């Protein structure tokens, strides 16, 4: 069951970044303009961000198992349409359709983990889920570079999308047999007013963050950003009074949930902008190919994966302090690599440094989201899942827009990377302080090893 869920998550996560590597090939093959390429790459992120909360609620209404399989089928068919697209316009529409499927399947993964695993088994499942969630972006870059570089069957960029078809078909055959879940006898209704407000608010808030930097931050971007922030605040107030809220605020009431989620969002946002700026520095200043830049990041992935899979076996006291130690290790590793890689890549020296940074990232996220989920009743599993999906995405696009501008404003790539890492360090300190507040709400006994 877990393998099917995580395979679907991997597909959806990878497709957020796999296209970035093939953007130039797509542009040349389809004679696409800059606006079309931007929509092909960023439209996926925008659409998933707008729909994640609504789709998490649809899991309560349709049943999480059914919603996951429906999203997986939609995503698979849309991937086929992407791979067969004859022109840029069709590819843009197909990418948006693909994002709709991803938005429907992704929140069901964490919801089903919360509902069907408990105790040590849930912590192990969350550890693996965290690894998949965080490393999907880096994996997308590596796989994208391999697939495009191989030019499979002379199809150029198309296998980037077509690779999802056999995987999706296999999961759709196996999924109905192994996935557990039943629709509630009294499923909640869908708050259409809440959907409308949130959709407009998320669109207004995320669109300028995604498209504004490349457009030079025009006036419309600032207006939309302000309107989006106001509408998001209005949505929160509305949900507090709604009879059947789209995002139940009761999920946030237990002590420690709010700061815990905030800490998770911060570390995921820092990871995204660190990955982006380090990759840009490797390619622009150190002349790495996209594939070489992806391979250079492998030690980070190994460090993250190793700790994600092992932290639940640590002594409870160590588990309890990992969310505090993790951001420190992440910041230390990121700062060290930024200083050493100013003019040339440090080679093998980078391996333990990036591994420490990756392990710190995992320590700051995996145990913490497990603690947060243990504080909330499983009745609100979809709300926690929505917050755990939407929050990191908003943190990521905000960090990329804000700190990405810091990087590009620097006189040299190396200076930009150092400035971004300095800002990341400050944010990670804030994240560690938020994690400290969760410790008082989570007893060591609740984190005991298997």
From TrEMBL:
Q: Name one GO molecular function term.
A: transmembrane transporter activity
What the entry lists under Gene3D superfamilies is as follows: MFS general substrate transporter like domains, Multidrug resistance protein D
Task: Describe the location of the Major facilitator superfamily (MFS) profile domain by residue ranges.
Answer: 1-443
Keyword terms, alphabetized: Membrane, Transmembrane, Transmembrane helix
- What is its subcellular localisation? Cell membrane
Name the membrane topology term: Multi-pass membrane protein
Domain of life, per lineage: Bacteria
Family annotation (InterPro entries): MFS, MFS_dom, MFS_trans_sf
Instruction: Give one Pfam hit by family name.
Output: MFS_1
**UniProt keyword annotation of Ribonucleoprotein present:** no
One Gene Ontology CC term in the entry: plasma membrane
Protein name, as recorded: MFS transporter
- Which organism does this sequence originate in? Actinomadura rudentiformis
